[in-house]
Amino acid sequence: MRFFLLAALATLANAQESTADPAFFESRVRPVLAAKCQSCHGAKSQFSDLRLDSREAVLKGGQRGPGPEFIREAIRQQGPLKMPPGGKLSPAEIDAIDQWLNAGAPWPNSNTTTKPQAPHWAFQPLTKPAPQSIDRFLNTTPQPAAKHTLARRAAYVVTGLPPKPEILATFLDDNTPAAWPNYIDQLLASSRYGERWARHWLDLMRYAETYGYEWNYEIHGAWRYRDYLIRAFNRDLPFDQFIREHVAGDLLKNPRVIDGHNESALATAFWRFGEMGHDNCNQFPEIRTDVVDNQIDTLTKAFQAVTVSCARCHDHKFDPIPTEDYYALYGIINSARPIVATLNRPRKPDLTDLKSRIRSELAAIWLRQAGESTVPVPQWPAPSVDFSHGLPAGWSATGAGLEPVKAGDFAIAATGPAVIDIIFPDGLATNATTSKWNGALRSPFLPRDKKYLSFQLAGASAAAHRTVMDHCVIGEDHKLIEDPAPHLEKVPTRNDQPLRTYIEINTITDNPRLPERPGKFKTNPDEKVQRSWFAVSRAWYHDDADQPRPTTVELRLAAAIRRWSTGQATDLDVAALTQALATGLLTNSRQASPALARFVEEFRATEATLELPSVANTLADLDPGADHPILLSGQARNPGRPAPRHFLSLMPERLRAVNPSGSGRLELAEAIANPENPLTARVYVNRVWHHVFGTGIVTSTDNFGRLSDPPSNQPLLDHLAAEFMRHGWSTKRLLRELLLSDAFQRQNQIRRLDAESVRDTLLAVSGRLDEKMYGLSVQPHRTELTEYRRLFQGPLDGDGRRSIYLKVTRMQGPKFLEIFDFPAPLQTRGNRDVTNVPTQSLAMLNDPFVHQQAHVWAEQLVQRKDDTNASRIAAMFNLALGRPPSDAEKEAYLQLLAKFATHQDPAKDATAWQKLAHTLFNSKEFLYLH
Amino acid sequence: MTRRRLLQTASNGFGYLAWQALAAQQPLAAKAKNVIFCFMPGGVSHMDSFDPKPKLSQLDGQQAKLESYVSGPKRKYLGSPWKFKQFGQSGLAVSELFPHIAQVADELCVIRSMKSEFPLHARANVFLHTGRNFGGFPSLGSWVNYGLGSANKNLPGYLLLNHGDNPPGGLENFSNGFLPATHQAMSVRADGVPVENIVPASPDSLQRAQMAALAAQDQAFLARTGHSDAIESAIKNFEMAYRMQALTPDVLNLDKESPATKELYGLNSSNPHQRAYSLQCLRARRLVEAGVRFVEITPPNLFGGNNGTWDQHDKLREGHQTNALVTDQAVTALIKDLKSRGLLNETLVIWAGEFGRTPDTGNGDGRDHHPFGFTIWMAGGGAKRGLIYGATDELGNHAVENVMTVHDLHATILTLLGLDYSRLTYRFGGRDVNLSDIHGRPVPALIA
What we know:
By secondary structure, chain A is of the alpha+beta class. Chain A is built from 31 helices and 23 strands. In chain A, strand 20 and strand 21 form a beta hairpin. Chain B contains twelve helices and 19 strands. Chains A and B meet through helix 1, helix 2, helix 13, strand 22 and helix 26 of A and helix 1, helix 2, helix 5, helix 7 and helix 8 of B.
């Protein structure tokens, strides 16, 4: 009943429309003032000495006298003063302001920064209860649950699966006090533990592998982050380090490296899982502001359980979170670029010798072919940007392949009849070793004075250049580079619009917009081709009129070949050779000599062994940190004054500041991971408690603000938080303590299995479960293929893999899981729905997957030879429910078997056993823990 | 599981009680009990359907000077390729595109001044359905069910009649968001198996044997759990699911409909797409008769695109004509049929796309997305009959008179259902959230 009353009271305020009512002001007046007036008459500017951001200021007015005397007229725009400039308010808005002024301009004091309030417990430092066992905080009266009930419950909490029969048997047979701790330790040591707890964390990260919206573009390497989590939980990565890696793993001085991969940087992938539109942000700037809003929301809910995104349009109504805080965080996040990062450097073979032998052999052949020929080659004017001496200032390069190349160096074709893909001019290239390796070259934010940046570049196999506005990284502006010889490529700088813009050139894996939707290109690149390359040498800023134009010089081909063969080639020589190869004057065939063919063969054999680099969508700080303007009413097109970057002002003072020269993201990470942060440990231990006991000590796991449910036991929560930090932020230690408590053993829990456990249990019980870990996700099963939305079809049983390995395709997730409340990956969800609806029963009754697993199980059961029907039924109960059947149940199932059987020997009747198995799957006990 | 949690998540409309506790304080006179939403995804052109613009025809082919997100030197005004005539006592102008709907002109409550906020399908769709431009919020159909509760314990309260695909924005359009999951839409497709897992995988005799064995097993389990509410509720749901296997196909089965009714809806059409849409419209009537609160019907996606079947950036004439042929007769039949059965008064029919289309064209034969002024209509359910409300400017570019926002539309629909738009709230993310947000107000002029 308390719930009804609360809801009733809370809504009562909105019910009336009186001008004296805060709701009237908040809904009809404040938005107008914020959107249309305060940019000139507010904290930042006070045109005509007028401020319209408090009652006092409105009444006092400005140069024209008290506000109420002239504001009415000004907004009606019938006199000389017409406000606001550039557009009249709507009649409804004018009417609202009018009424409000008539009522004496009441200004409800909802601005929390000015309203004194009693301190809220969650924002205060931890209280320090005396260290003691957690059971001293609780009164647990019920009897401990039966051993097998307890064993099943703990197995699901820790691993999400039923206990393995042999481990269960050991525990049930062991009557010593060590039995329970041993059992728990075995569960915690299982790799299944990491898979289970990684999935909990994915709920908080709104984890998905596609961007949804209209075309469902892929989120590159999202699955690698899922694997990161599984490793992190199984290795019991201290949670403070886990935080640092999530927020700023790319900036850590000493990142963790596993198998050559930058594990720490990979954690920042979480920033990138939000839904995202593919349009250009100059047309639709909300695409960017909504992405950052979702990032702020996820960060602050998941790690701090505060609803900072409520402060997007106005100060938080209940918690001390002013709008400035929101845009302070916005600036930190927006100072980073969303990139496709390369996490490792594959082993690089030494091919110098082989290459020089190919070079000599080619030179010898070419000299015979060249004779006295001359070739006209272009000579370019001095560039605006020169890539021939490494990376120009402000530019950034990532990828395993992108490196400086010297004029005359060349790339050997990995397949086909040709020897050479390209002879490089001085500059940068991704394929000096192999076209398997990736690269991305990014400009600084572009100057505004020129319309184009034209590159001299070459590239093939879905390398592309992109113009990225306001970090809308899957925007429409990109074009494939389809000429493998150096040429001029004109890229728009989009200097006609106000957004920060940069140009990016990238290979296929590093382009977040690939694979492209159908119809965007004449022919879409083959998704399976993982080779791609580009080389770039120089670039010019220009407008339409001053496009860079080369002059022509004639070059003697033989001289160019000679200089090339001794490593003395110039860019002009390279141009001559390139042209002679293109016209067929010089051969590019590996059959030109037996030696050449052999060398190329040898090169290709080595090249074939090279590994692909690993990539993932993450963040990187590539630019100086920049404050972001407060967006009035949260509107992307309505910027106000900049908000200096800092952490939440509700935090202890020394956690707030950031170094303004950087982005502030590293300081943000440290502030969240700091033991003095009043929220971090409390929020996390509460999440763990929630998963162990089914309900948090604070039930609103994602909101610890004033509107949260108060903790049922704050001393306990604070004790757990303090102990958690004291013991090195160890999740496993915390879990162990909770599981060994009397509270856990005596609690009377009724919980439905979550979606993954339902599916995984069916697989485990049927024997189909494949314990293979990690790797690319399996497409979920669906009855229809929708290719243009990248909704591909996977096998009915998901190849037997655990549910965490099913691909989370945002537009339509794994159907079977969604029936059992698998959350939509849109925002932090620390507390899943646990619904109880007929579609779940229908799925258990009729879904082909459930029947399939009953069939798989039955096929195994009928193979058994050393059992009776009764003992077989007992084994089924043990496996599915973790307990033997009662006599009545055994009898009922034997009768069912007799009824279902059509064979002479029911023991061999797989169909009958399948029906029996299906019956057991449909028992409520199968779906519930108690 | 706490009692509160159970209320939030259990089936059989427990969430309804929460709302009833509030509603009891100030009941509103309800006019509609059910809603049938004929969604027209992609965006129907208003100046080619219900909002004639003679001025536009005069300017046809001239360079367009409209300021908008698509404006540019190459754009030209595009007069409507269809002629308009006035119909009924209301004199509603309807184009040749919709000859059937024109026959029920006097039943319609036409809003010519709709305004949305986003010229993008996914955003505009989700906005029209949830009042928010991003996912995670409950759909109109979910709010209606949350507010009114179920009138049939054996059927879900929110059904989506589709053709196996979803418009841009995907399932977010039909999501229960943070409302209890019982309020999510269940899809019923026109062809093949209408509802997932509804067809029994085993013969009834087998299911009965299983049910009998499980009854004893589940009761024993229930006793061991101390008669847990959750287990009891799960057992009830299992029994309901068993019954739904027979009942749902029965409601969807048209065998009992007369040949005249089938003819009225166009079920005998030679066009298979029209037949599919007609089937869904007739099902919709049967479903509201059976007590389903909210039925949404989407048309077949005829052009294989990703953006909704009405999205004619080119080949406007051909595309709109094809879509109109598929939908016109069945929508009209729905209104006539509901009326003849005395159901129209309590059933609100809504016909709307996520936006309209531009008065100008970029390529000569198509129109682009246009949220700044467009037309939708309602019929029955207490909406004023024969009304033309609001207006766009003389070119159909901006809504200029009685501008009606999507939030206002939501508030108006809730009001027609007897729900107080400001009090129908749910606590989420620290706020009491409602459908029409802080902005929407019901429009009394639309209410009979």
